[in-house]
Structures are given as structure tokens and as C-alpha cells.
Amino acid sequence: MREMPRHVEVFFGERRAWAGELLGPQDDQTMLRQFCETFKNQKPSDYHARDLAVGDLVRLDHRTTYRVADQGFDLVKRSEERKLIADAAEYLKAIFKDSDRLAVLLIDQREGAKQPTHQRIAAAHEIVGPEFQSWLKEQNQRGYNVYVGMNALKPEAHGRTKEDVGQIRTLYVDIDAGGRDKARAILNAVETPRPDWILNTSPGKYQAIWRVQGIAPSQAEEKLRALAQHFGTDPAATDRSRVLRLPGFVNHKYSEPHIVRGWRVSEQLHQGAEFKVEYDAGRRLIQPREMAQPAVNPGENTQSHADFRFAMRRLGAAIKCGRKPDLAEIANRIDRFRNQLYAQGRGKQKLPSRGETYGERTARRAYERYLQSSNFSPDATSVIKNYIAKHRLSPHETLTVTFNNSQGDAIERTVTAGRSLSSEFAHTIEMMEKGGYTFAAVDRAVHAEKHERDRLLAQALELSQGIGG
Questions:
Q1: Domain range list for the chain
Q2: What pTM, to 2 d.p., does this model score?
Q3: Which CATH class is domain 88-291?
């Protein structure tokens, strides 16, 4: 059989695990069988992932995708392949009936956020409409995280309590630990049907969702607890009124925004009897520690979040004191500290990415967040105006404005608070910048004047005492 170059790509869910050029037959099925045998016996030198499993995808020559099945390979149709990553409207239409009343929850979970939480209750057909989806996208861009209740509410419900749930549409587990390996184990479990949806909500975190029917609200939480206990997933996600994230929207909870993605891996509607798991009330409902794996943003108390908070504090302190934030200094301190932790065997090594060190990336993102949250502008006039407002200075109080150049030379200009905001002083700033000097800091000159007055007063006192003696 004549062989020809074939381009092969391997996908584990969303992630492309490997891609390369191999010699193989022109027939796809023969090529796939030969490819699997090669992987079992002698993998390519640049392949470092696990063996292929049922549900994995193999794409040939950038055009045809196959799913690994129990026996052989199933062709993934173009329409089905597009559905692997879903948007919010498609996701909701696939799970809920048009008349189902759902709770949509908007929460700003960013550090220091002050935006109020919003909850809307509407029919599914309204939520998937372009007007409602446009509003959700607008709120998501403002920093809100978008959640939806996973079960339908009663017609008369005005809230989202357990008692308000009228119809059970889904069962779910929240995979906070174990990452892809846990998600893969749930996909291949024999005790439960294959989930209909897998969501990737943040790096290392997933949710598995089953569409169900015939389960009473009073029975749902027993099933949810049994699933969480059996798979070792988040025990808090076992209430029937739970809200989960919507695919297609950005997760703003952590320092690095993450787009929530959803994959439809089954189209079955399941009965409660298909879940062969039972809740053992005598066994604690916990996530085993050995299943935990580090994620980029596993929670608000990680060292990465501590680094981000440090950068925010340094920015705030600089601006409050009338200094232009020194992002390079903040970045250097973060990088030095993380290198010390790594040298002590604590934490992961933070390598440069896209031309930025970890510290530079953290300082930059903190600065961007500060600008968004405070409407602060980094130019000299804005810093001076902010300083005057913070210290409640009168127009006649004297300020010292400092400019630095790249060689470390400093020039000071003295100006009253009132004139510092004038167009005349703005021209002075502009001329300084043209001369290679950038704004560095502003401070009250009154301190220097007071020290000079105190010095002269002390000299006069000594002189008077000398005369008197």
C-alpha cells in the first residue's frame, strides 16, 4: 500500500495534545488504526501525553476529525464539531424548555469590587434572546461574572431558594480538584451515564452536567450528594438551587480572566435509575487531598493572588503619596520573592512568557485593574490633582513637583496647588518631557519651609541665650 505524508492532530477535550507529520496510507480508517498501534508501541519522540482513550479526537490533514470509540473510530460531522465549543444561548436551549423560569445571577467577584449583585428571573426563551444576551455581554465586560440556575423555578417563584425549585432539569458536579484527569474519569465512569456537557470554568477546574427527567426536587440533592461523594468533587455544589457559570462569558474572579467553554459530549436525557451511586451518610463528603492538583488560579488565597494584592497596595500607596507608580520596582520585588520561594522548594517556578517576567505581568495587570477601578490617569496632571484632593490642599499651599531623566538626574519645580493645575504649568510639564524628563512625584513644600523656619528659630534662640549669658 502506497504511503503518503499525513498531518495528524490529537485532542484531549479542548486541548491539542500533539500534532505532527507521519507517513501513512491514504485511507483514513487504515491510517487511524496504524496510528493507534504506533502510539501503543513506539510513540513519537515529541509526544509526552497519555495514551488515546475513548472520546479523544484525532484530526487528519486539517480537514476530517474522528472520535475514538470502543471499537474503531467515529467520524465527527462538521456540524457536530462546531458544537464542541458552545455559546450561552446554544447551551441553554439544549438543556431547558422555552417556558422554564430560570434565575440569572451577576456577581462582581474581583478584589475590591463595589458593584452590587444582580439577579433576574426570566423564561428561558427570553434569556436566549438577542436582547437579553446583549445585556449579559455588556455586564460581563463591566466585570460581572455570569451564572444561571441549573433547575427550573416554580411559576410563582420570586427568588432562588430550594423551595422555589419546581422542576429538576440537571444533575452536576463541580470539579475543583483533579482537573482533566477527574473530568476524564467521570466521562468514562461505568456507574453513571456519560455527562451531556463538560464546562471548563477556569484553568484546572471543570463542571460535568447531566440532563435528567423524572427526578423529584426532594430526591435531587440525595443524587447530587451521592455524585459528589463518589467522584470526590466539591461537596458544596450539592444543592438543587445551585447556579453554575455560562459558557461563552469571561470568568473575572481571578487575576487572569478566563473564557468559560462548554463541550456537548452527549445528547441523552437520563433517568434517576441510571445513576448507580448511593450517598453514604456515615462517610464524610470531602475532596481527597491526593486528588488535588495545582491550577493557575485555584482560589483567592494563592500566592499569585497575594502577589497581585501586593502590587495593588504598592500602586495605591504611590498614588496616594503623589508619586507615579514604579512598575519596574514592583515587578522586581515580586520576581525576587518568587525566586526565593522556588529556591526554598515552595511554589512553582515562574518563567517569562511573551517577553514579560511573571512580576512584570502581575504589575501590569494590577495597574490596568487600578486604572479601571479608580478612573485614575497616570499623567502628571492627574496625579497632582489626585494628591491635592487626597490631602485637601488649599490653592495657596506650595507643592514641589519632581522630574527625573533616564540617568537619574532630578529637577524640582515649586508651584502653588492652584497653579499646578493651570495650562501654564501643563506647558512646563510638556517642556520637561520634551527635554527627556518624566514626572516622578509631587509633595507639599510646606514641610521643607517648616524645617527651615524651625532651623532659623533655633538659631535665633541660641543667639538670644548667648547674649543673655
A1: 3-78, 88-291, 301-378, 380-469
A2: 0.48
A3: alpha beta
